[in-house]
Amino acid sequence: MRSFTGMGNLRIMSFNIRGAYFDDGVNAWQKRAGLNVRTILSYLPDLIGFQELHDRNLETYLEDLKGYVFELGPAYNNRPPHQYAAIAWNPARLRKLESGGFWLSETPETYSASWNTDCIRAAHWIRFEWINQGVAFIHLNTHLDHISEEARVEGTKLIVNRLDEPGLAQAPQVVTGDFNCLPGSAAYQLFAAAGFLDAYHLAGHSAPMMTYHGFLGNSVSESLAGFDRIDWVLLRGWSNSFKVRAWMRAEDADPPVYPSDHYPIIVDCEL
What domains does the chain contain, in order, with CATH numbers? Predict the structure, then answer.
């Protein structure tokens, strides 16, 4: 197992798991669920932001990831079976203090869509206590629309505005998600203007790196259009003693079977 241990260390994972109700042939959920679970267990993250989690995925995780606590957050997608930007954590490392969620729309307190979004989308946040570190922080997890740039931009504005609210703004923050756009996009620039830093760059990386591979894995070129770094871990408000030690994409696979059509993204932090 590849662990990152120590009370001052925190391993964060962002993982779009491609749900459980898609007709993906050899990569249908029932055929890749075991590999998906083994991949998570091989890295032992302390904190996970899932995207596209369905109830069937959760059934598998509750059976096979017993060391984690799960919270679903608001349901999203246009119709059942709904998806969730769920958050999971290791209760030996993190303690939940409070949580909330909202839809990415002009009426964020209700299940709704705006801005020409193709799908109803949501954000889910939890305030955690980092046990034995004396630090409380916010983790927000989301999944922006894959079609409408307007929806991605306005959804990002809503997320930033919520995280700027009294009671949340004072805490260090982690944002994970599938943002369905590239570094340098309008949504990315909005996060940067609000003070969020990209863990990929904090770990010393700068070259192009894809996180979506469409169940093709390493057979896809890094330069192929549409296969890009659309999954991010963003950080804001941490003290100077907080360091990003590593950024990784988990390439575990048993071709032609993959854990998901996205690589899990792993960030190792130290306080």
Answer: 9-270 (3.60.10.10)
Question: What pTM, to 2 d.p., does this model score?
Answer: 0.96
The alpha-helical segments, DSSP class H, found in the chain are 29-43, 55-64, 149-163, 186-193, 199-202
Contact 19, 53 (CB under 8 A): yes
Query: In the structure encoding, which two tokens stand for residue 93, read together?
Result: 């490392």
**Residue 158 identity (one-letter amino acid):** L
For the stretch 183-229, pLDDT in tens is 999 999 999 999 999 999 999 999 989 999 999 998 877 656 566 89
Q: What pLDDT digit, counting tens, does each position of 75-110 carry?
A: 999 999 999 999 999 999 999 999 999 999 999 999
How many angstroms separate the CA atoms of 194 and 117, rounded?
23
φ, ψ (nearest 5 deg) of residue 12: -110, 135
